[in-house]
């Protein structure tokens, strides 16, 4: 009898481990820390009433191919994930901002919980005259990235930084949309950072 119970327990344990190992996008994988992203502001408690994203800031995964594909307009900051819709809420333009200098070099910092084979990172910014009380859409973004960092299918370390030039001629409250494109899946990870130039 003891052998049968032990064998059953081992079988259940193996099944549970298999489910966890193949959990897919639910395990989540990365976000920006500088400039600080909306999901990080929720995770560290700076912004309240964020829902589920406060426990899994690394999970904003959606279809890749942005801006031609990817999440729908108004759902870009959540990666199109309804469970993270609080990230798309402009909160009346009251998201905390990071102060940046237009045209200056900036070091973009990422934190990863799973290091995926990476195509690149691309950074987009809102157009001049952007109203921060509105959701982020393609119509209020400059659709050519101001910075692209290729990575040729390599896997980044769990903390990763790269430096690039911020867009020139910007002033006021803008949103930077960072897109981390995965090389070997159909997905990318999205992070919106509110900034003050």
UniProtKB/TrEMBL annotation:
InterPro entries in the cross-refs: Cellulose/chitin-bd_N, GlcNAc_Chitin_IntDeg, Ig_E-set
UniProt keyword Signal, yes or no: yes
Pfam families in the cross-refs: LPMO_10
Signal peptide (residue range): 1-21
Keyword Protease (UniProt): no
UniProt GO MF annotations: monooxygenase activity
Location of the region described as Disordered in the Swiss-Prot/TrEMBL record: 58-89
Domain Chitin-binding type-4: start-end pairs: 29-195
Record keywords, A-Z: Monooxygenase, Oxidoreductase, Signal
Residue ranges, compositional bias (Gly residues): 67-82
PANTHER family reported in the protein's UniProt record: CHITIN-BINDING TYPE-4 DOMAIN-CONTAINING PROTEIN, GLCNAC-BINDING PROTEIN A
Protein name: Lytic polysaccharide monooxygenase
Species of the source: Streptomyces pactum
